[in-house]
Amino acid sequence: MHRLREFIREYHPIVHTLIIGTVFVRAASSMSMPFLAIYLSNTTNLSPVMIGLIIGAGPLASTVGGFVGGTLSDQFGRRRIMLIALYTWVFVFLGFAIGKSALFFILLNILAGLCRSFYEPVSQALMADISEPEKRFKVFSLRYLAINVGVAVGPLLGAWLALWGGAFPFFVTAAIYLLYTIILQGLLTRFGIKDIEGQKKEQVNFTLAFQVVKQDVALRYYIMGGILVAFGYSQMTTTLPQYVNQTLVDGVVLYSYLLSLNAITVVILQMPISKWAENKTPLYNLIVGCLLYAIGLIGFGVTSSFVGLLIAMFIFTLGEIITFPASTVFIDNLAPEGMRGTYFGAQSFHNLGQSIGPAFAGYILGLFNGTVMFIVVAIISLASILFYMAGERDYSKKTGKKMGAMSAEENT
């Protein structure tokens, strides 16, 4: 009980609210959005091509949406942008439940992508605003853990809710988002986030934001590194299932076990690994994480057994656990105090890797085989280390210091 009280006191109440809320909203969206293609197929006359266009519209919109939302949050405040995104999201889920036409669904998924890309970078920026620098790595690790808990639970709930009717999960998701938004709005007011923003806000506009990002060489290196990491990470849900299905009997079932291992590993090991990683520099963690990614990818390609795939997925997941929070801390170091939202929003450009990766790897898979494909992808992913090192070098040249470890003990 004492340790629980210490944990609660360690972070700002809004940090706890955002982390707990992340579990519920990710579970809620995961109980509906993964089933969107099936829902559209069963309830409309849309062709598979049109359904594919609808599904792809969201990620495409989020590629630039994060930068826009982050810049707006620097200009008008985190609180306002987050709440607008969340309330809009409620109507988006209601729209999915009642919509009929293809154009309407495309517009809805574009809005869904924008809402996600507005809310998530802005909520990360707010967490950084109200957390001491030495605590931010742990905060971002807790957030990532919350995401995985929600994603692990959501699809199971969605499958059960779908028994009540195709649109029912979307109504439930809308209700959960509305409840969370109302609670968050009340707490943001209660704990004076509007006043905090008034003290920290600077005169930021899109012209200034674009100029700063354009001139920040370290940020450009970071974005390139992130694109290459996303390029490799995207294979887990695109080419890996195809490869497993082609090479092993009952590949679809076995792939579901691999995904379960990924989620369980994150939930169990996120905090122990974060405790180890918070005493290291962001660059060190990114290098270790990218090496583990590459080993996991090569493992997928060279193994011919399911046990080998399980081991490769475990190693790949360790890279994921280290890399995701470390990349957030890396960009937190780069961001000027008054433009943290803009910089966190720039992370959305990593989605280019998610877009390019599956198509490129699928092309290689068609030309050669899975072994060649995964080795090529691993090499491309490893190249991200060069960009992260270049970003660190430029940061050091510009500031006269290196990015330090994110633990209080290491910084003192």
Outline the fold blueprint.
Blueprint: H1 2-10, H2 13-30, H3 36-43, H4 48-76, H5 78-98, H6 102-129, H7 136-161, H8 168-190, H9 193-200, H10 206-215, H11 217-233, H12 239-247, H13 251-277, H14 282-302, H15 306-334, H16 340-346, H17 351-367, H18 370-382, H19 384-399, H20 408-411
Helix pairs in contact: 2-7, 2-8, 3-4, 4-5, 4-6, 4-16, 5-6, 5-8, 6-16, 7-13, 7-15, 11-15, 11-17, 11-18, 11-19, 12-13, 13-15, 14-15, 14-18, 14-19, 17-18
Description:
With 412 residues, the protein is mainly α. The protein folds into two domains: 1-200, MFS general substrate transporter like domains (Growth Hormone, Chain: A, Up-down Bundle), CATH 1.20.1250; 202-400, MFS general substrate transporter like domains (Growth Hormone, Chain: A, Up-down Bundle). It is 83% helix and 0% strand. It has 20 helices and no strands. It has helices at 2-10, 13-30, 36-43, 48-76, 78-98, 102-129, 136-161, 168-190, 193-200, 206-215, 217-233, 239-247, 251-277, 282-302, 306-334, 340-346, 351-367, 370-382, 384-399, 408-411. Helix 2 (13-30) runs antiparallel to helix 8. The longest helix is centred in the N-terminal third of the chain and has 29 residues, at 48-76. The protein is globular, with a radius of gyration of 21 Å. The two termini are 29 Å apart. The model is unreliable at 406-412 (pLDDT under 50).
